[in-house]
Amino acid sequence: MRIELPEKKKLVYEMSIPIRWGDMDAMGHVNNTTYFRYLETGRIDWLGSIGCQPSPEGEGMVIVNAFCSFYRQLEYPGDVLLKMYASDPKGSSFESWATMERPDNPGVIYAAGGATTVWVDFKAQKSRPLPDWLRPHLE
User: Fold this and answer.
1) What is the pLDDT of residues 14-69, one digit of tens each?
2) Burial class for 128, CB neighbours closer than 10 Å (0-12, 13-18, 19+)
3) Exposed (0-12), middle (13-18) or buried (19+): which is 107, by Cβ within 10 Å?
4) Closest C-alpha to 98, from 75, 7, 139, 110
5) 11 phi and psi, to 5 degrees?
6) What superfamily does domain 10-138 belong to in CATH?
7) pTM of the model
8) CA-based nearest residue to 113, from 79, 83, 74
9) What is the pLDDT of residues 94-131, one digit of tens each?
10) Alpha-carbon distance 57 to 69, whole Å?
């Protein structure tokens, strides 16, 4: 199965993540659960870069669906170049996508994943409309 990124996606963030020795499993490659950590790291760093620090006292994003497809094995040592995209902003949600490459093998996608992301009021535990300040980062 190949993940097709939507045509109207916006590159919102890029970062390099070092592959740690402990990221590997007994088979000698990065464990599948670690890819979700890489996706999370990219989302959280992106949020920080746009001035949106997660706070349980206010509003912010939650993930309601997450997925990842694995195309090639990532192995230690090395780095992961994570490219994060956003698409399909709606009333209270948007889609986030990411591709994972190795900087020493540019253009080759090792994994791709994403999440459906919903803006919520954490105390009320209810969705809220995406804030006006956030929309330019998604469109």
Assistant:
1) 999 999 999 998 888 999 999 999 999 999 999 999 988 878 888 999 999 999 99
2) middle
3) exposed
4) 110
5) -70, 120
6) Hotdog Thioesterase (3.10.129.10)
7) 0.88
8) 83
9) 999 999 999 999 999 999 999 999 999 999 999 999 99
10) 34
